[in-house]
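Subject: design request, 277 residues
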């Protein structure tokens, strides 16, 4: 008899909006699920897909009901649901109080879902859901028929984005999350890239055996990723005064310290940066 399996993907963006890189990642997941269903099932077998996101409210950037309906339709075709988690919208979203509430609510959702599956993989995307590993490791009940595993997918830490004076409370939150991976065999951390994995090992004590590959990718068959015609690309570059006769170092992100673009600029030799950079 084939085991019943499911993924519970927990994210703060991309389910009912799309305003940052995490949102783009969620959209890529949904696109791949919608466009490559048979290929995915042939590769890894059958599984259901559920999404978790904060309940839409005043702190939901660019909330789009049609976007939410699309997400619901796609996961419904995979036997799943969109689960929205309530939290106190009077509290700043980017705060430990909100993250703790989301992680505890996400853990309750996972425990409820686990009763219907033989295997459940919870993917906790970035710092707001980092507490899921700690909470589920503490709540995991021995003897249940369902195996719950947690994958923590960090994309930054306070030591990086809040340098040189990171918030001690956030650092402690992230240390407890990493600690849950070191202490619980069912909590893993995504190896999203060499730099960040090295950072988690050296600064947070993550043991290498708890890292699993989790690199980002694109659904190149998606209509919104079709290459721009060369003539149009040249016109765009000319309009923005991008030189076409020199090698280019390109980065995508806000000109905000959290994105580290200043580090990139400082790392490029001075004579390689033009006056218009």
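Subject: RE: design request

Done. Sequence follows.
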């Amino acid at each position: 008899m084939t085991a019943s399996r499911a993924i519970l993907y927990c994210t703060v963006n991309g389910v009912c909006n799309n305003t940052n890189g995490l949102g783009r990642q969620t959209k890529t997941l949904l696109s791949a699920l919608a466009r490559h269903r048979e290929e995915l099932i042939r590769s890894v077998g059958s599984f259901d897909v559920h999404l978790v996101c904060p309940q839409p409210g005043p702190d939901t950037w660019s909330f789009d009901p049609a976007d939410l309906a699309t997400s619901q339709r796609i996961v419904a075709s995979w036997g799943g649901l969109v689960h929205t988690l309530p939290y106190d919208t009077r509290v700043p979203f980017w705060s430990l109080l909100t993250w703790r509430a989301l992680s505890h609510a996400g853990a309750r959702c996972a425990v409820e879902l686990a009763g219907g599956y033989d295997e459940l993989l919870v993917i906790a995307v970035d710092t707001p859901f980092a507490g899921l590993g700690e909470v589920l490791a503490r709540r995991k009940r021995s003897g249940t028929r369902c195996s719950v595993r947690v994958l923590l997918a960090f994309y930054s830490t306070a030591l990086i984005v809040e340098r040189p004076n990171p918030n001690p409370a956030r650092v402690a939150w992230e240390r407890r999350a990493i600690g849950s991976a070191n202490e619980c065999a069912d909590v893993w951390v995504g190896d999203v890239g060499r730099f960040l994995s090295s950072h988690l090992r050296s600064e947070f004590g993550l043991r290498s055996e708890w890292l699993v590959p989790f690199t980002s990718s694109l659904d190149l068959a998606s209509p919104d990723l079709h290459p721009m015609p060369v003539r149009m690309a040249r016109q765009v570059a000319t309009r923005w005064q991008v030189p076409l006769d020199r090698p280019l170092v390109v980065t995508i992100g806000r000109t905000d310290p959290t994105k580290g673009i200043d580090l990139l600029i400082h790392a490029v030799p001075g004579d390689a940066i033009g006056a218009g950079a």
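The radius of gyration is 20 Å.
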